[in-house]
Amino acid sequence: RRASKSSAYICPYPNCSKRFVRRQSLQLHQICHSGQKPYSCTYCEKQFARKHDMNRHARKHTGELPYQCIFCEKGFARPDARKRHYQF
């Protein structure tokens, strides 16, 4: 359902107060509640509810390290790992 004036779409599931600016974002979010996992890893067939999570998982197989430290050029598979590196 759409909230008034804030142009936010509110998740209708009980105990979930997430809001989204776009309807498509709400629809993607609702997959988490449904239990559906429409995205499968092409390497091991593990299934995911979100495409982003599948892509992040696939880096374990490919060894891709797209997030580089700007100081030492060390590569990381995830931005949160690079952020932890910066804190040292």
Average pLDDT confidence is: 91
Helix content: 25-40%
Biggest sheet, open or closed, and with what strands and sense? 2 strands, antiparallel
Shape descriptor: flat
CATH architecture of the domain at 39-86: 2-Layer Sandwich
CATH superfamily of the domain at 39-86: Classic Zinc Finger
Domain C2H2-type: 9-38, 39-66
Keywords: Metal-binding, Zinc, Zinc-finger
GO molecular function: DNA-binding transcription factor activity, RNA polymerase II-specific; RNA polymerase II cis-regulatory region sequence-specific DNA binding; zinc ion binding
Protein name: C2H2-type domain-containing protein
Describe this entry's structure for a reader.
There is one protein chain. It contains three helices and six strands, in the order ββαββαββα. By secondary structure, it is of the alpha+beta class. It has a domain of 48 residues: Classic Zinc Finger (Double Stranded RNA Binding Domain). The strands form three sheets. A two-stranded antiparallel sheet has the order 1-2. Strands 3-4 form a two-stranded antiparallel ribbon. The N and C termini lie far apart (44 Å). The mean pLDDT is 91. One of its GO terms (molecular function) is zinc ion binding.
Summarize it.
The protein has 88 residues and is of the alpha+beta class. It contains three helices and six strands. It is flat and about 45 Å long.
Quickly list its features:
single chain; 88 residues; alpha+beta; Double Stranded RNA Binding Domain; two-stranded antiparallel sheet; 3 helices; flat; C2H2-type domain-containing protein; Znf_C2H2_type
